[in-house]
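[stage:ingest] chain + small molecule (5-amino-5-deoxy-1-O-phosphono-D-mannitol)
[stage:ingest] validated
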Amino acid sequence: MCGIVATVGHKNAPEFILEGLESLEYRGYDSAGLAILNSDSEIEVVKVVGHVANLKDKTNNQNLTGRIGLGHTRWATHGQVLTKNAHPHQDQNGDFFIVHNGIIENFQSLKDFLMNKGHRFSSDTDSEVIAHLLAYNYKKLKSVKSALIASLQSLRGAYALAVISKREPNKLWGAKLSGPLILGLAKDNSYYLASDSLALASVAQKIIPLEDFELVEITPKGQTIINLKTDQIVSRPTELMKLTKEDSQLGDFEDYMIKEIHHIPQAIGDAIRGRLNIDQNFITLGGLNSVVDQLQYIDRIIIVACGTSYFAGMVGEYLIEDIANMPVEVHLASEFRYRKQPLSRSSMVIFISQSGETADSIGALEVIAGSGMLKLGIVNVVGSTISRLTDAGIYCRAGLEKSVASTKAFMSQVTILTLIALYLSDNYKDYRLLSQQLVNLPSQLSQFLNQHQIKKIANKYYQASNFMFLGRNYNYPVALEGALKLKEISYIHAEALASGELKHGSLALIDKKMPSLVIALSGKTLDKNVSSIAEIKARKGKVIAIVDDAKSPIIDQVDDVIVIPKVIEPLQPLVSAIACHLFAYYMAKALDRPIDRPRNLAKSVTVE
Ligand code: M6R
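[stage:predict] done
[stage:export] tokens:
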């Protein structure tokens, strides 16, 4: 939540900050702002409500120049979406300027304390308290770095922040306690801070992801990282910047969501590359090598995640129980962290997260940190917090996912869970068939992406106010995922049920105004889904069926049909979900919604 960028040394700091903020808009986009140190050692601030494009317009009108500055794109937590609540925030004398990502939980008591000391606040945010604390501590300590260290000690909660000050004008400071903050280094001796290396792709050649309890002080001559717990200077090797500017550009696509859906075949191919052996039941998961001995004693798996990653986890439950015959439970991270769990060391916990930065999942991880249980991560963003806090894990390799709606990352997560199920199985009878089909899937899905039936169907249904999604077994989590995606980007209310539950209450909702999308694929539950369709049709409900047989008798019973490639049951979610993603996309498109930046949401939910 919220994106931060900052620089010391870029030849045109406002230009870099505006570009960087644009690439971070997936983290929040309700307001934006920047602060630039100008040639008279004054710090100029520009803030707007709305997207970075508005900030660009306003900044360009002011002809700002400078080599030092910071910027922020906001996802509101404390305080409404108003210009006064946009970052940067400053103290009352205008000496200290900060941008903050996270939540300061004890801000009210700090604010009361500072107000008693005569500080006047200008926003309703928790973040502003940091600027005032800096001013308060600077009075005694006469050094911005010392004032920052003292201020950080008073904060409770989560933060990644960047600071500039008129008191020491040629410097920039960054600090973090949960929430990502990346230090970027460029050949021309310019330095950067950003919430995601994506914002640094066009300027920095090397990066250092900061760790919790680290503070960095940057001057035009260099940077120093200090560990605040040990008070020691940290010397950590730099990493090469792997992202390029093109990675974050749309190319020929209209939106990142559709670009990312079209990237699904490659994402699945990348997830299995070098890991799946078709001929023998032999799965290579290098990320698990260090915990192979512990894995032998595991007899129960707990999967913890949020949102779409949680639904991938539910698919994982079906996969692992079916293929590896091992009991699995799936928990929402936000519930797991506050719930008493009878846990044993023979259980292993798998955390699934695209970003690796989701606060609830990190919170759940922290709850079991000292339990001695094996903790694995299925994470997409390399080097993210969850990938670092888990004992071992498997990267998704889905590449950059920018659209708030997660699509290709879900597919990679499900692919990795399929590999884990095979890895844990002894003698899975359909190993060869499944692995052969998995290898063929990317090319089948590429062909499927070229058909246009889903767009036509969406154009017929986009005015519906409510939608029902139904599926059974492997396709029940896909129904949940389809409903979430529709709500998220089209703002149409949708709910999902395991088809068998329809008659236990929700059937009362069905009438001619409430359409249903039923995933009715070959397999054990096909006949049961056919019965559910009949129950809906008998109540005059419209039905779109996702089928995998172009000659299925279902076709004559329903209003519209989406035909998807036929695969073995454990692989069905990888095919049915892409149809649901496309359906949600075209529904939202027909409604002219801002596909990649749905209202009220942000890509990484780094607050609780
Ligand atoms: O980064 P994570 O996978 O941990 O994120 C979890 C959810 O916030 C995320 O999947 C969310 O539900 C998506 N926006 C759904 O498309």
